[in-house]
UniProtKB/TrEMBL annotation:
Limits of the EH domain: 1-78, 107-195
EF-hand domain location: 27-62, 139-174
Keywords: Calcium, Metal-binding
Protein name in UniProt: EPS15 factor
Amino acid sequence: FLPQVDSANAGRVLASDAAVFLKKSGLTDLVLGKIWDLADTDGKGILNKQEFFVALRLVACAQNGLDVSLNSLNLPVPPPRFTDTSSPLLLSGTASSDLPWAVKPEDKAKYDAIFDSLNPVNGLLSGDKVKPVLLNSKLPVDILGRVWELSDIDRDGMLDRDEFAVAMFLVYCALEKEPVPMSLPAALVPPSKRKPLSVPGAMPLIPSSTSTKESHQSLPPVGILAAKTPLTQ
């Protein structure tokens, strides 16, 4: 990955170059900011080669639901995944469009019943209607904020039937003490949200729908749980 962000071959990475590259991980700005702070040990806004590798390792930890902390650096995790299909590391594997959806049909029927009971408008539920359901789970507000962020795949501040199923799936996982991932796994992206791959034979290991999330700054904050969670700052 280093040659992609160190084009001058100077052995260091500037914050501006690293930010563009790290956004391809599909992680939120909040998480990426935390990763940068941990990797940029001297606070100069520049990463040397070792610090850049620490940042990549933390990206991999976050993508696999582990805490973004220096304690996670020694844990075994797969390599980090980025949406840049020009990288040879991303040209293998099963196309995300072929993956079976992680939400089972019998669970989807339950989630659909809850969805319909919340009086959706034009097949969509606003954050205000979903918020009580999320809060009813008694999960920590920061976890619920992440559930919302992951399930609102098209970033319109509303959940359709499939996105709501993703939210419910993540809530039930969290209630079973499973970590909520920092980025949405390919198998959890609803088939209706998966885009055909533009590069023949290549596949971004992150579901292609996350590529629309690369510039979080231009998006308005969702507003759900805004009073309590830092995710919408």
